Amino acid sequence: MKENVASTVVFILLLFLNINLLNGQSPPGKPEIIKCRSPEKETFTCWWKPGADGGLPTSYTLTYHKEGETLTHECPDYKTGGPNSCYFNKKHTSIWTIYIITINATNQMGSCSSDPRYVDVTYIVEPDPPVNLTLELKQPEDKKPYLWMRWFPPTLVDVRSGWLTLQYEIRLKPEKSAEWEIHFAGQQTQFKILSLYPGQKYLVQVRCKPDHGFWSEWSPESSIQIPNDFTMKDSTVWIFVAVLSAVFCLIMVWAVALKGYSMVSCILPPVPGPKIKGFDTHLLEKGKSEELLSALGCQEFPPTSDCEDLLVEFLEVDDSEDQQLMPAHSKEHPGQGMKPTHLDPDSDSGRGSCDSPSLLSEKCEEPRANPSTFQTPEGIEKPENPPKNVTHTWDPQSTSLEGKIPYFHVDGSKSSTWPLPQPPNQHNFRSSYHNIADICQLATGAAGASATLLDKTDKHAFKSSKTIETGAEGKAAEQREVESFPSKTDQDRAWLPPQEKTPFLSVKALDYVEIHKVNKDGALSLLPKQKENSDQTEKPSTPETSKEYAKVSQVTDNNILVLTQDPRAPNLALFEEQAKEAPPSLPQNQAQIDLASFTAPPGNCRLQLGGLDYLDPAGFMHSFQ
Amino acid sequence: MLRAMGRDKASLDRMTFDNLTGSLLLLLLLVSDLLLCKSVASLPICPSGAVNCQVSLRELFDRAVILSHYIHNLSSEMFNEFDKRYAQGRGFVTKAINSCHTSSLSTPEDKEQAQQIHHEDLLNLILRVLRSWNDPLYHLVSEVRGMQEAPEAILSKAIEIEEQNRRLLEGMEKIVGQVQPRIKENEVYSVWSGLPSLQMADEDSRLFAFYNLLHCLRRDSHKIDNYLKLLKCRIVYDSNC
């Protein structure tokens, strides 16, 4: 019996439920809180969205509890905010407090709660738009006209006490335009607009934002019509100024175009290039050294008729203590000590003329164990090289000349020293260009020292050697009369001077150099004039003073230069290449010059006796390597 | 005798009445004086309207408000960045309830309470809150540095906030020195004991500790900013900002 009743009840219940389900009714869906907002940080409102209502009338309640409390409250006001809203008035609002809010939907079938929402009023402040926006056109007499607008903060916001601080923004546009022009106004409640198009109708809006909140909506539009005579009076002045400056610019451009070059050259004058007076670089390139030298004002080489008159010429040789022979660029022989110091610090002075000081400016102060090396005129073979290159080419021969001492051997006669090379001095070398004639004179004159060579450069070398003297002291070169040339069987090396780097062999600065002797072969040995007593060469012999060797008569196959005497003394002197050994002790003041082979120079400088034209320094190179 | 007594009684009555009137008048005078005094002073805290005091107080408040506004902006940005980067989906917001160490300080919770509190008390309250944050800010900087992939934006803001907070504290002490030089309050502030939780090994707990600290910093910096703006409008502009 009882079982029957129970089962019947269950059956009816199920039936009832089924009937309800068939009707489509269900508990409500889950509601959701959309937004919570406070217009003035004193009250706030929350809105929610209902879920499915399940086909039955559903009621919604909002419950909340505050941070730090346990009590749950219900919404105090469902009406003020509109449908599905809850309004919290001042009494129920706490700032800096988290509200945990929940919506409950209930209907006949059941209820459903939303997810809790955590709301802090501090961060949901969004005020109403500003109110009472007024626009006014102002046109003061002596100033530009402008549009003046002002507004008031929204009514609910308490700005006076500082509870909220508002910032404003305005925007305006001509009525037909599509884009708004936005201006930030800060905390002020008025604004001026200056740039307006006359005859247009403008629309203006304003909005505000609290110091740590969201922007409000834009206020309703206010409009104003700009009259047609709303002109900017000073614009005509600017147009006038613009036209004037444009005209001025055009004139400037025209002037520059016409006289551009002269103006530019007036402003930026061209920089003059370096020039040697009378020196034609084209001639140099072509290799016509005769013309070149003639342009420079030098005499022919060898000198012809004049030379004969200058029989006795003195050469001045540098004798300063700090002068030593320098193996120019001789890296192979660094230790030879042949490093004469620079004798001519201000070598630039006055070296360009033919009257430059003597070529002999260096004296070898090395102990005799290290006979100075000398440089052969390698550069001679390249006459077209610019002088400074020649310096390099003068180079070591010195290396190979280790221990060699160029010298002239004159038979027994007092020898006048050959012009000794200058210290490494480019300018001295240049001066050599101008002194070949002198050297030539020296060579052909009574002074027997004539290892002259025939090339132009040789000519130069001679000249420079003559002028080497002491560059520093700048003494004029003088030709030294060679009294005699002792002939000599020994092989001597003629040494061509005037390379700047040519080591100056044992010639005292500022000394007159004598031909010490001439051996029977006609080799010259040179000695400084003032120390006659200390001069000892290895191969001295009684110099003959009467013979002078000034000209090269021929060059033999063995790179031997054959010098001849002056035409008055028609003796042949033969200078042979010295063996590769230095005389063990060379007096400091003695100069020894080795003459390598000389090839005939082209042209101008012709020996009187011989057919040799020029000296080829290549010969020197061979001999000393 | 009765007549004498009656006469004496009358005079007594008269005397009492006179006394009463006099005292009433006196009382009235006092009250009116009080009322008058209250309405006369424009800057109630400057003694006898000294100009220097008024001007310098205005500048001090302007400067303090600028600093507090800046600090809150930085705190807000820092919190948002941390939330976006580390706290998504962890449900930290549900746990950061009533967890600030400064909640023991009884601060006003709405506008009415803030306007009712006396400006000296409000100044001291601000000082207390500022002092309570010296230690946490220092450790925040050092702990953020030690985080893996220390976020540069957050670290730089933390360093900046720490420095500006120190400056604001100096400014506030100057203002307090001008407003109430006589009263020297003991340094009262809330002690922060959240350092161990910032150094926890469990990453989730450690991140929540950071989240909570940044959340409380954002809130307290907003409080300070709001109170200062209230005070400035009240003291310098006479509630007419």
Task: Characterise this structure.
The complex is a heterodimer of chains A (625) and B (241). With 625 residues, chain A is α+β, with helices and mostly antiparallel strands. Among the domains of chain A are: 32-120, Immunoglobulins (Immunoglobulin-like, Sandwich), CATH 2.60.40.10; 131-229, Immunoglobulins (Immunoglobulin-like), CATH 2.60.40.10. Chain A contains 10 helices and 21 strands. Chain A has helices at residues 2-23, 235-258, 260-267, 281-286, 289-296, 305-309, 387-393, 426-444, 456-467, 617-624, and strands at 32-37, 44-49, 59-66, 73-74, 85-88, 98-106, 111-113, 117-120, 131-138, 146-152, 166-174, 181-186, 190-193, 201-210, 222-225, 316-318, 510-518, 524-528, 549-555, 561-565, 572-575. In chain A, the strands form 6 sheets. In chain A, strands 3, 4, 6, 7 and 8 form a 5-stranded antiparallel β-sheet that branches. In chain A, helix 8 (426-444) packs across helix 9. Chain A is elongated. In chain B, helix 2 packs antiparallel against helix 7 and helix 5 (119-132) runs antiparallel to helix 7. Helix content of chain B is 73%, strand content 0%. Chain B contains 9 helices and no strands. By secondary structure, chain B is an all-alpha fold. The relative contact order of chain B is 0.16. Chain B has helices at residues 2-40, 51-86, 92-95, 111-116, 119-132, 134-146, 152-179, 195-198, 203-235. The model of chain B is unreliable at 37-41 (pLDDT under 50). Chains A and B meet through loops of A and helix 2, helix 4 and helix 9 of B. Chain B: Interacts with PRLR. Chain B: Pfam families: Hormone_1 (PF00103).
Ranges of chain A where pLDDT stays below 50 over 5 or more residues in a row are 322-354, 356-437, 445-509, 531-546, 569-612
> What structural class results from the helix and strand content of chain A?
alpha+beta
Q: Biggest sheet of chain B, in brief?
A: none
Succession of helices and strands of chain B: HHHHHHHHH
Task: Name the biggest interface.
Answer: A-B, 25 and 30 residues
Task: Estimate the helix proportion of chain A, in percent.
Answer: 10-25%
How would you name the CATH homologous superfamily of the domain at 131-229 in chain A? Immunoglobulins
Task: Write down the overall mean pLDDT of chain A.
Answer: 66
Q: In this structure, how is the largest beta sheet of chain A organized?
A: 5 strands, antiparallel
Radius of gyration of chain A over alpha carbons?
A: 58 Å
Quote the CATH topology of the domain at 131-229 in chain A. Immunoglobulin-like
Beta fraction of chain A: 15-25%
Name the CATH architecture of the domain at 131-229 in chain A.
Sandwich
Form type of chain B: elongated
Q: At the first level of CATH, what is the class of the domain at 131-229 in chain A?
A: Mainly Beta
Structural class of chain B: mainly alpha
State the low-pLDDT regions of chain B, or none: 37-41
Q: How would you state the average pLDDT of chain B, rounded?
A: 84
